[in-house]
Amino acid sequence: MTVQLSIEDFDYSLPEELIAQQPAVTRSASRLLHRDAAGQLHDRNFEDLISLLKPNDILVFNDTQVIKARLHGHKSSGGKVEVLIERLTGESRALAHIRSSRSPVAGSFLRLADSFNVYVLGREHNLFQLEFEQPILPLLDQFGATPLPPYITHQPDDQDASRYQTVYAKKPGAVAAPTAGLHFDQALLDRLHEKGIAQAFVTLHVGAGTFAPVKVQKIADHVMHAEWYTIPAETTEAIARAKRAGGRVIGVGTTSVRALESAAKAQELVRDNQALEPHAGDTRLFITPGFNYQVVDAMITNFHLPQSTLLMLVAAFIGLNPMKQAYQHAVAHRYRFFSYGDAMFLERGNNDA
After folding, report:
1. Is 114 left (phi over 0), alpha (psi -120 to 50) or beta?
2. What's the CA gap between 63 and 171, in Å, rounded?
3. Is residue 243 part of a domain?
4. How confident is the model at residue 73 (pLDDT cuts 50, 70, 90)?
5. Rounded to whole angstroms, what are the CA distances from 249 to 53, 89, 153?
6. Structural domain span for residue 93
7. What is the DSSP pairing of strand 58-62 with strand 198-204?
8. Which member of 173, 240, 324, 332 has the greatest number of CB atoms within 10 A?
9. How far is 171 from 348, CA to CA, in rounded Å?
10. CB within 8 Å of 209: residues ≥ 6 apart
11. What are the tens digits of pLDDT across the range 19-29?
12. Are residue 308 and residue 208 in the same domain, yes or no?
């Protein structure tokens, strides 16, 4: 009999002071909660990852780059407006969230940063279709602000522009960071390479929907937001080499995991019988308990918001009760939570969901 999971199954109590407001002093100085294949929990430091990984393992990172997606300005009527770019759809076009006293109408324009106009083309569900007068990315670099998550209370500054970005970010398009990757600095990446641990990259442009609450009682009724991803040939070839050598595929962050598993689902792979192929497209994959992981063997991830789709993905990976136990342990041992917080390294056992 299928168990109907509700939103309350993914709730937990978190003291507000455990929500990290600033990053660690250095990237790799975070703590690491390690859940081993036997289901045991270990309190470690992030640099201990070097001893936990094995030669022939492969780390798969998300190389998306966070854009300065938040802009302020006025509507043509004079009212204040805040724009958060959700997705770039062309060199001068984007889908965006708009906050204002009244929603702007198609055909109107917004004056942003007292410097340029943006035209409202129409609506796409809860998003607005916008056209900029010039290419978007240079304008965002000059006038935009780093789109910090809603639970980080300070205004973004120069430190955020650097630290809310991975050191390997290459392809602009995300409006939220793939936060598990924030713990890696170049020195740590070099040490992992020297140990024989391969590194490969996917791209998934994280949208603001990653912070959107699940608003339905039964999680099966939730509709996942779309995100664009691509998995290049060099990554699928590196994964195949690692698997042939007996190594594990380790997803760095839920976004890398979703990209890999989305491609596997699209290709209808059967574990160990078919190799992952290059793939690109939109994904609305919603990973919940009972999901059959086909590519990823272990995961590095931060701690996620209660009742979030990311928490459900973790529960699908190690099991609902083990997830709850890990989070209870993290709260009791004062780990730092969310984007600027500490990390987990999750290994799966044979009996995990």
Report:
1. left
2. 6
3. yes
4. very high
5. 11, 31, 35
6. 70-144
7. parallel
8. 173
9. 31
10. 86, 224, 225, 227
11. 999 999 999 99
12. yes
Do 191 and 233 fall into the same domain? Answer: yes
Q: Is 338 found in the same domain as 245?
A: yes
Read off the pLDDT band of 272 (50, 70, 90): low
Q: How many domains does the chain have?
A: 2
CA dihedral for 29, 247, 278, 282, sign (positive or negative): negative
Q: Are residues 16 and 60 in the same domain?
A: yes
Residues 178 and 106 in one domain: no
Instruction: Please report, as a single letter, which amino acid is at residue 213.
Output: P
Question: Among the residues of 144-296, which ranges form H helices?
Answer: 158-163, 186-194, 233-244, 254-266
Query: How confident is the prediction for the chain on average, in pLDDT?
Result: 94
Query: Which percentage of the chain shows pLDDT scores above 90?
Result: 88
Q: What is the distance between the alpha carbons of residues 148 and 176, in angstroms, rounded to a whole number?
A: 7
Beta bridge partners of 201: 61
Structural contact between residues 346 and 317, judged by C-beta atoms closer than 8 angstroms: yes
% helix / strand / coil in the chain, to the nearest 5? 30, 30, 45
8 Å CB contact between 294 and 269: yes
Residue 353 in any domain: the answer is no
Domain at 273, CATH number:
3.40.1780.10
226 and 83 fall within a common domain = no
**What is the value of pTM for the model shown?**
0.95
**Nearest-CA neighbor of 32 among 16, 47, 48, 44?**
44
**Is 60 exceeded by the pLDDT of residue 57?**
yes
Report residue 53's pLDDT band, with 50, 70 and 90 as the boundaries: very high
**Per-residue pLDDT tens over the stretch 228-257:** 999 999 999 999 999 999 999 999 999 999
Q: Tell me what pLDDT residue 98 has.
A: 96
